[in-house]
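Re: [help] complex structure
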Amino acid sequence: MGGQNFSKKRQMILDTIKSTNSHPSAKWVYETLKKEIPDLSLGTVYRNINLFKDQGHIVAVANIDGEERIDGDTSPHAHFVCKECGCVYDVPATHAPISRECCSMDGFETHNTVLTYYGICGGCTQI
Amino acid sequence: MGGQNFSKKRQMILDTIKSTNSHPSAKWVYETLKKEIPDLSLGTVYRNINLFKDQGHIVAVANIDGEERIDGDTSPHAHFVCKECGCVYDVPATHAPISRECCSMDGFETHNTVLTYYGICGGCTQI
DNA sequence: ATAAAATCAATAATGATTACTGATTTAAGG
DNA sequence: CCTTAAATCAGTAATCATTATTGATTTTAT
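Output below.
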């Protein structure tokens, strides 16, 4: 009950992504789950991340130093990317409301809106 | 007069980027200029793009299929990325105003704000 | 002219992601 | 509980964008 018929590994990969707000990379998911599933393959993580993106379970939110970062929270909210440490933070909609309207260009259909702030995070400003 | 002392190739790379609104990739810049400068090297294009980004002459605006796309127009405006054809369009500030305030998180310094719409562009909806 | 600094072409190296293949697991029916 | 076809996977090789390296060329200042 209550979900599609995912294989055990596939479900654990999704659970791992959903259980963090660190906006992980594929490699982070792989290394984190590797402790629990020693025979996990990095290719499997990539394949399932692409599947989850296609199905709308997760979204890509940033690309830091060539690494795609994903988010299991698909509700509308902005992100803050620290140029120093590469961390990606959630910015709640109350602090950075994302405008729902798009450009009024004829025939353009907007599926989703990405609002990202780049700068230096609290931890890195203190250094 | 009226500019830094760029070498001929460096200046032509910047001019090429500034002269288009197609939000090109490094490879596009390379292939476009290669016709004019047969002995241009792709590494030179990458090196100079990174230099221009550091100096604030250009900005990175999207990453499409693993390729970084840049913009010679550094004025605040949003972008529309077509998931179908991969084109990146300018969205003038009048159609999608970018909020200047950022998250009110303590100690966070915002340097720039990126607002991007993803969807299907006018050309691709008609197919 | 000339020497030091900047810049470059060419190539090799790196690193993220994807494709492939044969083995394993899962799902459905008997 | 078996069986069998389809789905999934591990392991590895390949791909592709980007970066690093190095020795040669160009630019700049003198």
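Chain A touches chain B through 38 residues (CB under 8 Å).
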